[in-house]
Every structure is written in C-alpha cells, then in structure tokens.
Amino acid sequence: MNSNTSRYLLAYLLWFVSIVLAFVNLLKWRSSAMIILGITSWDRYLEHALNQFGFLFLAILGLIIIVFTEFYYRTGVEKNQLFRRFFLITLIELILLTLADLAYVVGSIVLNFFASQSLIILIVELLLCGVVFVLYRRTPPPMELSN
Q: Global pTM?
C-alpha cells in the first residue's frame, strides 16, 4: 500500500477516535448538566428547556468538532504533524471529559448519591490527561521555515 495512502487512513482512524471521544463528552456533559440542574431549585419547565437547548447546543458543537478535526488531521498528514495534532485534540477532549466528571462527582456528593466508582473514573481520566500531555510534549513541533 502506498505510504501516503496509509497515512491518510491512519488520519481517518484517529479522526474516528476523536469522534467517539466527542460523543462520550456530549453524553457526559448532558448527564452532568442534569445533575447540576437537580441541585437548583428552578422551575421544572425551565430545567426541561435548558436540558433540550443544552443538548442541541452540545450536538451542534459536536458537529463542528467533527468537521474541524477531519480538516485538522488531513492537513496534519500533509505537514507531517498528525500525531501532534491528534494528541492536542485528544488532550482537550480528555480535559473536558474530566471537568464533566468533576461536575458529576460534586453534584452527586451534594445530592447524596456519591459512588466511589465515579471518583476512580475521575482519577483514571486525570492520569490519561497526564499521559496524553506527555505524549503531546514529546512529539516534535512543526519546523520553522527560515527566509
């Protein structure tokens, strides 16, 4: 198989991983938002509207991420920066996922249904953030073009 073709196939495989992470983020943020809304004393109709519009907003944001990452990874192949770009996007997605889980844990503590598994998941996500950050820092930055 042509080396260039295999690099583009790898880019689309990594793009799929980013899509899955974006989808998990969408679900986790919605779940965390429902927990946070449960803490408030707002009217249930307002909570329902916020839930629906929040999900719509997150879905649109997810679509933007899907389109952007495809372009970002494809041009990363051309500039020989695919892994650096993948680690950056993955790090951002993992940080957002960790923040959503942190909101979930805090909300579950306030509502008195805390489960220790949530804390374990949060710790694993923090460790994954650290690993991906180290991998991102170890990938070589783009070469500067001198005039």
A: 0.85
